[in-house]
Amino acid sequence: MVYARRGIGGSYWSTFFPAVAVLGFGMAITVAPLTTTVMGAADRQHAGVASGVNNAVARVAGLLAIAVFGVLLARTFDAQVRPRLDRLALTPSARAALDRELPRMAGAELEALPSMKPAERAVVRLAIADSFVSAFRLVMAGAAALALAAAAFGAAIR
């Protein structure tokens, strides 16, 4: 949830570094014991298979999480940014050019849109940034909920 705290602006050290440090610490105290438990549960002669299964499950779970959370991020961003942009009085050519940039989300190149006035560009940039941060917060809250559910499940079967 530390990733979901901050908004737009701020330095790396006050916005992302604390979250990265907490994530790194959490991974350090969970991954090694989990691997040790998996390897300890297998007979010595099956250590290679146990290691392979453990690695495969970890990779597949990571890929599924990235896919699901990626779709959630993209859909949430789209649902948040489009109504904001619809309220703006953009020319049809500016809106068409902007719609081509929206799949890039926060990386949209607004300076490349010559049909947009500087004042409009600032409002659009803020709408995109706010929508991206909102979608990112939702994904981080979902990831935290998933981690808590996994911890509760692990505690329950213990």
Characterise the protein shown here.
- The structure is a single chain.
- Helices cover 75% and strands 0% of the residues.
- The chain has 158 residues and is mainly alpha-helical.
- The protein has one domain (2-157).
- Helix 3 runs antiparallel to helix 5 (118-157).
- The model has no long low-confidence stretch (mean pLDDT 87).
**Treating each run of at least 4 consecutive H or I residues as one helix, how many helices?**
5
Q: Cα distance, first to last residue?
A: 26 Å
Name the beta content range.
Answer: under 5%
Largest sheet: none
Cα-atom Rg, whole angstroms?
Answer: 21 Å
Low-confidence stretches: none
Oligomer: single chain
Percent helix: over 70%
* Tally of DSSP β-strands: 0
Q: Would you list the SSEs in sequence order as H and E?
A: HHHHH
**Overall outline:** elongated
Integer tally of domains: 1
Given helix and strand content, the structural type is mainly alpha
- The chain-level mean pLDDT equals 87
Layout of strands and helices, then pairs:
Blueprint: H1 12-15, H2 17-41, H3 47-86, H4 92-101, H5 118-157
Helix pairs in contact: 3-5
Primary descriptors:
mainly alpha; 75% helix; elongated
TL;DR of this structure?
By secondary structure, the protein is mostly helical. Helix content is 75%, strand content 0%.
